[in-house]
Specification:
The chain is globular. The chain has twelve helices and no strands. The chain is an all-alpha fold. The chain has helices at 8-30, 35-56, 64-90, 93-100, 103-115, 121-138, 150-178, 180-202, 211-234, 237-240, 247-259, 265-295. It has one domain.
Length: 296
């Protein structure tokens, strides 16, 4: 797939579809396999596909500096992924996806802490609106007797979203410096190496019948990260951000058709608040960018 042929918006749309399918596969495998094993398989198999993409791209040079730059991000991604994977096993798919939408509102604060960027008042307002959406989405949850781990699942998604915002800030610079094939390979290989030890030590081997789904999981993961890196290397994040929210459509459909989940109305109302806050942030960032260009 070439960025010269397909627009970044279409590339990201395909990435989001692959990501929603990947989450559904994780949820399915997590019902009968240890979540550490699912996480390891996700990255191990994805590494094979990512390696093939890297070879097909002409084996772009991976330096020691590249490994060092991606090492910290690898640990962040591994932690983020395992927490979110576990949350998928205890929450409806659409609810987990909705709560994960909060991550763009956390990015300005992470960028401030890591890069020294100033948090604008509009970003603070958007964060308040977004977290109001989180509170709304939490309403109407099943009682503890019916779903004893539901609250822990919500906390897990929010922690995962915070870690993912860190990973996205770190990705912002590396996507343009390294290119999609290298980013995809590093994003699969390093977290896989990190999760391998605990998975081998604490997880029983997978059932034979599940192997095709593990292969599907790895393929979807590799395609997801490759297309994400390709899209963000070709367009500004603020231009692509609204497309991420289409994942709720795919997650709702998959959750209903495969897992027989019917999301509560509060989830969609909360999602509306979160998405509106994120789009407001995108609009404000675009307005400031245009104003700076005109001033220059």
């Amino acid at each position: 797939m070439s960025g010269r042929t397909f627009p970044p918006a279409l590339i990201l749309t395909l990435a989001i579809m692959a990501g929603a399918s990947m989450d559904a596969t994780i949820k399915f495998l997590g019902q009968s396999n240890h979540i550490l094993l699912v996480g390891f398989a996700r990255y191990a198999v994805a590494s094979v596909f990512s390696y093939g993409i890297w070879v097909h791209a002409g084996r772009p040079v991976i330096t020691i500096e590249t490994w060092r730059a991606h090492a910290l991000r690898g640990f962040v991604i591994a932690g983020c992924a395992m927490i979110f994977f576990w949350a998928l096993t205890v929450l409806p798919l659409a609810e987990a996806v909705t709560l994960s939408f909060i991550y763009p509102l956390i990015v300005p604060f992470v960028a401030s802490a890591l890069l020294g960027e100033r948090v604008r008042p509009a970003s603070l307002l958007a964060a308040v609106i977004g977290f109001a959406g989180v509170i709304i989405a939490m309403q109407g949850a099943p009682p503890t007797e019916e779903s004893p781990q539901h609250t822990l699942g919500i906390i897990a998604v929010l922690v995962s979203a915070a870690l993912f915002s860190v990973a996205m800030v770190l990705l912002r610079a590396r996507a343009q410096t390294d290119g999609a094939p290298i980013v995809g390979l590093m994003t699969s290989t390093i977290p896989g190496l990190i999760v391998a030890g605990p998975a081998i030590a604490f997880s029983p081997p997978p059932q034979v019948n599940d192997w095709p789904y593990f292969l599907l999981l790895g393929a979807l993961a590799a395609v997801f990260m490759y297309l994400m890196a390709r899209a963000y290397a070709k367009a500004e994040a603020q231009q692509l951000a609204p497309i991420h929210y289409t994942e709720l459509i795919y997650a709702s459909a998959i959750g209903y058709l495969i897992f027989h989940e019917t999301p509560r109305g509060e989830i969609y109302i909360g999602a509306a608040f979160i998405i509106a806050a994120c789009l407001f942030n995108v609009y404000n960032e675009r307005r400031l960018t245009l104003a700076n260009k005109e001033a220059a």
